[in-house]
Amino acid sequence: MDKELIIVLDFGGQYNQLIARRVRECNVYAEVHPYTLSLDKIKEMNPKGIIFTGGPNSVYESSSPSYEEAIFNIGVPILGICYGSQLMAYKLGGEVKTAPVSEYGHTDITIDSDSKIFDGVSRETSVWMSHTDYIANVPEGFKITAHSSVCPVAAMECAERKLYATQFHPEVMHTAEGQKMLKNFVINVCGCKGDWTMESFVETKVREIREQVGTGKVLCALSGGVDSSVAAVLLSKAVGKQLTCVFVDHGLLRKNEGDEVEAVFGPNGSYDLNFIRVNAQERFYEKLKGVEEPERKRKIIGEEFIRVFEEEAKKIGKVDFFVQGTIYPDVIESGLGKSAVIKSHHNVGGLPDHVDFKEIIEPLRLLFKDEVRRAGLELGIPEYLVFRQPFPGPGLGVRIVGEVTADKVRIVQDADYIFREEIKNAGIEGLGQYFAALTNMRSVGVMGDFRTYDYAVCLRSVNTSDFMTAECSEIPFSVLQKVMNRIINEVKGVNRVLFDLTSKPPGTIELE
Ligand code: XMP
User: Which of 76, 83, 120, 127 has the fewest CB atoms within 10 Å, counting from its CB?
Assistant: First the structure.
């Protein structure tokens, strides 16, 4: 490998990918690997530095993840974080003890001596602690470089051997100067130049994919969302017409979305690939007829998607590789080197069972969403695709409460289009996730001189950073009023517009 690499050795901590991401923010490439990665393999990968992550275990339990002591002697700088710091201390002859109570949350530490890691960091600084065990005595040759009122060794090091450790988590935002510390490790200690960019990520991936695929045939399920689009373009750059993208229009997409995807990826689009659009709208509506229960709807849509996809794949014949746009947040990693599980939530129905392929390619597996977007821009994908809002795999199927029909799809598509257009006109697109949904409530209204008995559209707009929790976002009343007026006037079948104020929890973002 010709690029500078930092290996993040995963000992089961919850922040393992975050560490890699923080290192990449220093323009140095980082990858997370399980602690079971062999020392020979590590040497072969020739990293500029290694970071041991935290983890929930205690070094004294025999089943705890560990690493052979020889790793400390290969001359590669190591930074141990939390459990990683305790492991370093324990393996090298220091003493680790269990405190009667855990230390959790913000803590002020004092920096005790000059250290490359703390270059430019204030002497008193706020950090994030989350531990029960602590280092009571440092190994021979090490010195304490920081402490807190309750933690005697908040940081230690043996600069001659380039071994560093922090009991706290520099990678989380709550550690005020954490990014500076990680940068100090990567640049000052490991001697990285910091010249890695998204452009080099793309170049390297294209080269790697080319080597992996050879002359093989590749199949990609393209949804038109950011992740599968970026994955498809990467593949197309790497292997051109060896790639076939199958785009299933399940009739539950946003207004004009099918045509937009075709315009970019289809025969008149910008990329070198084989594009197959399957217009399966009627098939999905047929299957969903009379079905009201949300989970059953999700299941039907997911399964039907797989069936349609498999039928198309069969026509193409044997393929060698299957591409998935899995990104890091989709990967539920055991953190301990077991294979990853794909969320069933993630894309419509997961993997096809009857498509014969040798290997899965997941080129975006290590990236966070904003990194995927940066890669997309780097690849020249149009901005409106790159900055698309999240859209659930089952599409409008989960934005129509109760039975799905073609007419209801038309209503929600048109209402949603108007809502999005007015948000754009008002210049407040940075809102978060916003869309229109259709309730199954019909109510009485009056239009002109006539009584109406029509559906109520629900406008939903939320701010969220992690999609686990969300707050309703404020939209100027004038904008809401305009949206309401336009929906009532322009969308047949709607006589009432509601604005959903519910946060998550207790509500979810989607209605179903
Ligand atoms: P909920 O409704 O669970 O949504 O609060 C959280 C986020 O996930 C999206 N979502 C999905 N995404 N497949 C997806 O790829 C799905 O089945 C799915 N369901 C919900 C939702 O849009 C929101 O951003």
Answer: 120
* CATH at residue 149: 3.40.50.880
- Our answer on whether the CB atom of 469 is closer than 6 Å to any ligand 1 atom is no
Cα 510 to ligand 1 centroid, rounded to whole Å: 6
Considering only CA atoms, which of 492, 493, 511 is closest in space to residue 455? 493
Residue 138 has pLDDT above 90, yes or no: yes
Cα separation, 5 vs 31, in Å, equals 8
Return the pLDDT at 345: 45
SS3 445: strand
32-41, 163-172, 320-329, 351-360: the lowest-pLDDT one: 351-360
Question: Of the candidates 129, 160, 189, which is a domain's last residue?
Answer: 189
Q: Measured from the CB, is residue 329 less than 6 Å from ligand 1?
A: no
Residues 288 and 407 sit within 8 Å (Cβ to Cβ): no
Higher pLDDT, 120 or 430: 120
Q: Is the pLDDT of residue 273 over 50?
A: yes
Q: Is 161 in the pocket of ligand 1 (CB under 6 A)?
A: no
Closest C-alpha residue for ligand 1 atom 11: 392
Contacts 24+ apart (CB under 8 A), 192-196: 192/4, 192/6, 192/26, 192/28, 192/48, 192/49, 193/4, 194/26, 194/27, 194/28, 195/4, 195/27, 196/3, 196/4, 196/24, 196/27, 196/28, 196/29
Q: Where in the sequence numbering do the catalytic residues fall?
A: 82, 169, 171
Q: Ligand 1 mean position to 392 CA, how many Å?
A: 5
Q: 464 CB under 6 A from ligand 1?
A: no
Q: Is the CB of 393 under 6 A from ligand 1?
A: yes
**CB neighbours of 477 closer than 8 A, spacing ≥ 6?**
none
Best of 331, 345, 400, 433 for a ligand 1 pocket test (most atoms within 8 Å of beta carbon): 345
CA–centroid distance, residue 346 to ligand 1 (Å): 8
507 lines ligand 1 (CB under 6 A): no
Q: What is the pLDDT of residues 149-161, one digit of tens each?
A: 999 999 999 999 9
Q: What's the CA-to-centroid distance between 161 and ligand 1, angstroms?
A: 47
SS3 26: coil
Q: How many domains does the chain have?
A: 3
DSSP-derived secondary structure letter, 328: G
| 259 vs 264: CA distance, rounded Å | 9
Domain boundaries, position 156: 5-189
Q: Both ends of the chain: CA-CA distance in Å?
A: 46
| DSSP assignment letter at 504 | B
The CATH number of the domain where 360 resides is what?
Answer: 3.40.50.620
- Of 119, 111, 101, nearest to 168 (Cα)? 111
Predicted pLDDT at 336: 34
Q: Residue 270 C-alpha to ligand 1 middle, in angstroms?
A: 29
